[in-house]
Amino acid sequence: LEEYLNLTQLKTSLKKDILLDYYTAGFFWAKEINFSLIQLSGFMDLLNFILENLSDKHMTLGDNLKELERAVATVGESSGEDSEQMGDLNFFSIEQAKAIIDFFFISLFKHYKAYEYLFHGPREELLLSEE
């Protein structure tokens, strides 16, 4: 994942290390509940989308929750309608969509202030040694 996400300097960047940890946790969570390959890919896209909303677009918790709601609204619908910015997630069951929402609430939204600080807090990063 480190190479795929192009995260360099993990030993000296706490922010990048935390991001790698979050992506890894999400990946293994999705594998544990036996997502198919396409579901795993869709979940990781959604995870990236939610994180980009926070890091790049500076979305508030409420706005990011609305984006998650829009993204999972396609679950259980047939394709052919206009897809949202995130794309159709109709390859998930309703139960899987509920599990995904629970994952984001427990892992990200519950700690949203901490992640906001990670992305947008003051930049007084201390250099950590490899030791």
TrEMBL record:
Signal peptide: none annotated. The lineage of its organism: Eukaryota, Metazoa, Chordata, Craniata, Vertebrata. InterPro entries: CLAMP (IPR032727). It comes from Pitta sordida (Hooded pitta). This is CBCO1 protein.
